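During the no-cost extension, the postdoctoral fellow (Dr. R.K.) reprocessed legacy sequence entries with the updated structure-token encoder. One reprocessed record is reproduced below for audit purposes.
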Amino acid sequence: MVLAVAIGAGAGLGSVVFRWCIQAFTHLFSGHADYTASPGSHNPHVPWLGPYFVLLAPVLGGLLYGPLVNRFAKEARGHGVPEVMLAVAQGGGRISPKVAVVKTLASALTIGSGGSVGREGPIVQIGSALGSTLGRVAQVTEGRMKLLVACGAAGGIAATFNAPLAGVFFAMELILGTFSAEAFGATVLASVTASVIGRAAFGDVAFLNLPAFHVDHLAQYALFALLGVVAAVVGVGFSRFLYLVEDTCDWAWRGPEWLRPAVGGLALGLVLLVLPQMYGVGYPVLEKATEGGYAVGFLLLLLVGKMVATSLTIGIGGSGGVFAPSLFIGAMLGAAYGIGVRDLLPGTAGAVGAYALVAMGAVFAGAARAPITAVVILFELTGEYSIILPLMLAIVLATGVSRLLSRDTIYTLKLSRRGIDLDGPARGAPIGAQDVGTVMEPLPSPLPSSTALSDAADLLSLSGHGALPVVDDTGNYVGVVTAQAVAEALAEQADTAPARVGQLTEPPAPVTVDQPLAHALPALLSTAGTGVPVLDTAHGKPVGWLSHHSALRAVHTAAA
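Re-encoded structure tokens follow.
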């Protein structure tokens, strides 16, 4: 608890410094607090350049952050969240402390000089690096180290966006990938502490200023549902386009990596000259779109322009997040969709801004596949609860359609392209790469489902296993019964307790002979017994038994 509070305080202070750096560099490079509030205007520092200063700003920024990242922390390049996910899944939660400093400066320089990226990725990596550093100083166990990394991520999101709940769920849903009472308690402490510091610095107001929206007609739910499906396609498309541009930049660049952001900044500057609304994060443009301030054609141009500008910023080696661009793209899509349905169904469609708000969450859910985070963070960013039902509907549909369209998310795709599977073994790990069929034990004798509990207790005690497979009267496999379940049933009152094994049988997560051991370990660890049956791939019949002992023997075999 003390460590969680300390990390929350560090993440809160880190977010204040990060926001200040962004504001300082934005004013330095553009002469404005936020250039997108008056896009196309001149820079008062160099008025003789007029609007053409945007051609030089990304180049100058790249000359500063390119050598910084290349020399001190190459992992600070890009959007940051995948690196944190990898550190938690396969690196024991270890993140270099210098990442926090380098990421702060590199991301602030990127955004301040016109890079069309967001703040969430950098602040997650900054907070996580602080958590990992404090964990090493306190010499905590690996499990606690991962939790402290998540606390840093939660605190960073909470303080930066004034969204304490979103910080908690972002950390558990995306960073840890699991929910538990301990994780919830620790991340809440960090999130609350960071939020108190963030509110003291920035005020207790919603991050985005949007008008109130309401659902006035039941038919609108069908329109929101269709929008969720469309948003999923756009979110997945954004993910693919992002890495397509990155591949193109990798293919085209032949010079030193430290110079790449500066040279690539010329291309980014051309995009900013054509569409100055792409400069930096672009929240003023987003808010204007939700208010119906743009025509449909220009909204679609802004949507495509944001995809190009964000992908180019990341592709040339910039440092920044993809959450804010996802919101921006969603707002443009939703506003254009809202105007379209309003023209088609003027008495039914309702406010254009409602569709923009819903699409913001749906596009992020389609790209990141984090529905709980998407719902909570949109509510907290806007303070709009009246739109929560259509928001939930569209986000869930977007998540489901995204899963059908793509195996990876915008975060995991970066890792899978490098041959890294978060659910698989780390490279060089002594356990995990073997097939289950090569390490499994012989299948224990199964219990008929009609076996009395007292007889099952005797057989389980003699078997040496904490669980046994169960078959029905025809010999077909139906699941597993554990010693724990039998013991609990025998301790209940006789008139209410189950009498036969079949009433306690539950099918565990399927494990097959050709499955990598690393993918089978979660099923093994989640069982109440000491093992799980291994199924034949073709027929689904149990042919062996995977236990903790057989998994550990794989380490000895690999070493030999």
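The first strand starts at residue 447 and ends at 448. The mean pLDDT is 86. The remaining legacy entries will be reprocessed before the final report is submitted.
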